[in-house]
Amino acid sequence: MTQSIYRGRFAPSPTGELHFGTLLAAVGSYLQARSHQGEWLMRIEDVDTTRCVPGAADALLRALDGFGFEWQGEVVYQSQRTELYESALDNLSKKNLIYPCTCSRKQLANEDNLSLPVYAGHCRHHHLPLAEEHALRVRVEDRTISFEDQIMGQNRQQLASECGDFVIKRKDGLFAYQLAVVVDDAQQGVTEVVRGVDLLNSTPRQIYLQQQLGYVQPNYLHLPLLIDLQGHKLGKSTGAAALNLSQPVLHLHSVLVLLGQQPPAELTRDSLSQLWLWAIEHWNIENIPKQNQFIKHQ
Ligand code: GLU
Ligand code: ZN
Q: Would 134 disulfide with which of 61, 100, 118, 215, CB 3.0-4.6 Å?
């Protein structure tokens, strides 16, 4: 596998049915890949088994298939990749970057008064052995991580003061999203990550892990979110209804409008394959709005 080919991915968490916000992220990452004649991989992010809903992964895949998405290769499930995460953890541990954290929820809650909670490093110098029953944190360095996002522009984060040492394996034994996503993107040879802007804040932590693990850094493109009229991110937790799959062309047309692609109105009467042909040919990231988009519940 060479790095010269564009390889994108879509990585939904199976925590509910497909809703409009998820569809927008899927469309953005798919059109980026297709317009680069690239590959588009599908990964089910079920690493946090406590949040997964039985049957949701299959339902999501069926829905995406119904919208006409085509992914390459087998679907990858994070719940089956623990060995890969274990071996990345070993590598970090050999570099003396990992330590157990015995802080209680209450202790941590006191640090939780900022939008991104900063861990003050309480357990950093305790030199406890790595034991099963504790959360594991990775030490961050006192330096700024910067990266250029293709839509949101230049970003900087000082990990030490804005985030602190972060958890990569939880107290309950599950690997944290931050580690799993970095290992998977590298292992699958993903060259560009396209996802919602709610994850922009996580990107510096992921870049830090890539650097420590010696991985190639992918490009990043963070899409605006859909916000309901109450100002919440559109998602399962805000009661966004699952999409009605009987009108895929209409929904995709609305997504293209929200992504600033100005699809002609006649496309709503076309077939699914004609809609995709138009969308791939006219895809232009310059037109994607930087601001989150307000919509009514669908
Ligand atoms: N699994 C994450 C979600 O559904 C997306 C992670 C990513 O794209 O990096 O929000
Ligand atoms: Zn601690």
A: 100
Q: Are 295 and 228 in contact (CB under 8 A)?
A: yes
Question: Which atom of ligand 1 is nearest to 12's Cα?
Answer: 4
pTM of the model: 0.94
pLDDT of 114: 47
pLDDT tens per residue across span 147-167: 999 999 999 999 999 999 999
> Where in the chain are all domains bearing CATH 3.40.50.620?
7-81+181-294, 95-178
Least confident of 73-82, 130-139, 215-224, 239-248: 239-248
* Ligand 1 interacting residues, C-beta cut-off 6 A: 11-13, 45, 181, 195, 199
Fold assignment, 7-81+181-294: Rossmann fold (3.40.50)
In 3-state terms, the chain is what percent helix, strand and coil (to 5)? Answer: 40, 15, 45
CA of 266 to the centre of ligand 1 (A): 33
* CA 25 – ligand 1 centroid, Å: 9
Residues written for the chain = 298
Better-predicted residue by pLDDT, 228 or 253: 253
Find the distance separating the first CA and the last CA of the chain, reported in whole Å: 41
Q: Residue 107 CA: which ligand is closest? A: 2
CB 218 within 8 A of CB 224: no
